[in-house]
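User: Hey, my collaborator sent me this sequence without any context and asked if I could get a structure. I don't really work with proteins. Can you help?
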Amino acid sequence: MSKKAPAAFQFETALQQLTDIVDTLEKGQLGLEESLALFEKGTQLTRLCQTALKQAEQKVQILIEKNNSVALEDFDADDNASA
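Assistant: No problem. I've predicted the 3D structure and written it out in structure-token form, which is a compact way to encode the shape of the chain:
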């Protein structure tokens, strides 16, 4: 049984929160307990974002199949990072 993102989940908001957490942790000015709490929150947000992206990918695949469009190609982030 897979966990679904809550109905009120906003991908962009979660991504911004995740970015803020990373920025805060990279500064290295928090204590251990605060850092661990933020890290835990970050991992939760990451899972939610990954789930939302996977669901979006599945929806796109279904739409493509329904419209007999071109098949999706695997995305390789390394190839596009230098572009």
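In plain terms: Residues 11-81 form a domain with the Helix Hairpins fold (CATH 1.10.287). You can pass these tokens on to your collaborator as they are.
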